């Protein structure tokens, strides 16, 4: 019959052994992939140029479906769902549980990726297999998506950031283990910019406000007054009928009266040019950021890919005011390892206190605890030889 003292000593030893074992595995990096469990889902993300007509998106989606469906084992597929979004679409392939099928979702994603990426002209296609932690990754995503590897480009100038992001994307695609990369900054929304020639406007005795009001009235109407009733206020806007409203090009035919009774063409008081406005500006701690995300192949190890990516991007010359950091799952992994180390230290201290109280000695618990790592000498080679994981 085991004594209470022996029993109380055995439990902490087991706990310490497990903690040390898992910590050692976490430091090596490779077993982190073992917990990337097959979630029986493959996602395909199709993005097109901003402003693309839904009919065009549907046509491209049909072509994508024709390429993908023949690759899906009918007996292993439960659902094939499509969803059209602004300027793109998403496809969700739901597979049977891992125990009920032979095909691996990560291997299937690799096969689909090789068939569709770069094969659909005019579309940016991304393929990824969701792992068992995909929900947590989406919840804790900082805005760049739920990709394995994420590069954060920080800098104020958006145009320059877009050019640098494309260079980073190109370099990431050459890194071994990267299946594809994408810049998070989409092409801006088309817009027409109107600039007022202030010197010329003032020389004619006009004000910028008068000219701006003329432009606003002819294009979209102007606010004339307000109507108040029941404690609420409603604006009154005066504008032309839809068929009589002018376009930006029609402004050339508009004239503005001057204080001396003459008329001057509006086109001589303004300058027009076409441009694009950003649809979204993302920030971290008030600093503008552009995300470049990359998905990995099924056999890639995140830590090794990050090392290669760092080496590849280290030679990239960045303008003043720009910087690069790595985020995504890699950052979460680093945070998790730090938290895990703190937890282990606290657990060891607590276990030592418990054992010291049981043994009524300060030295004996240390002897027991320091003998535990010696178990690894036999355990780790055995795991390697037998091909057994710590799952």
The portion of residues forming beta strands comes to 25-35%
Radius of gyration: 31 Å
Might you state the CATH topology name of the domain at 38-132?
Answer: Alpha-Beta Plaits
Number of helices: 11
Gross CATH architecture of the domain at 38-132:
2-Layer Sandwich
What would CATH call the class of the domain at 38-132? Alpha Beta
By CATH, the superfamily of the domain at 38-132 comes out as Multidrug efflux transporter AcrB pore domain
* pLDDT < 50 runs, ≥5 residues: 1-11, 26-35, 132-146
**SS content category:** alpha+beta
Measured as a percent range, the helix fraction is 25-40%
Report the average pLDDT across residues.
Answer: 74
* N-to-C CA distance: 32 Å
Tell me how many strands there are: 15
**Element order: H for helix, E for strand:** HEHEEHEHEHEEHHEEEEEEEHEHHH
Shape label: elongated
Q: What about the largest sheet?
A: 5 strands, antiparallel
Question: Can you walk through the features of this model?
Answer:
- The protein is an alpha+beta fold and 391 residues long.
- Among the domains are: 4-30 and 347-386, no CATH class; 38-132, Alpha-Beta Plaits (2-Layer Sandwich), CATH 3.30.70.1430; 190-277, Multidrug efflux transporter AcrB TolC docking domain, DN and DC subdomains, CATH 3.30.2090.
- The chain has eleven helices and 15 strands.
- The strands form five sheets. Strands 5, 6, 13, 14 and 15 form a five-stranded antiparallel sheet that branches.
- A hairpin with a 5-residue loop joins strand 10 (255-257) and strand 11 (263-265).
- The longest helix is centred in the C-terminal third of the chain and has 31 residues, at 329-359.
- The chain is elongated.
- The two termini are 32 Å apart.
- Mean pLDDT is 74; it is low at 1-11, 26-35 and 132-146.
